[in-house]
Amino acid sequence: MKNPNGEEIINFLNSRWAGAVCPLCQGREWNITDKIFELREFNNGDLVLGGPNCSIIPIVPVTCGKCGNTIFINAVSTGLMRE
Ligand SMILES: [Zn+2]
Question: Ligand 1 centre from 19 Cα, in Å?
Answer without folding.
Answer: 13
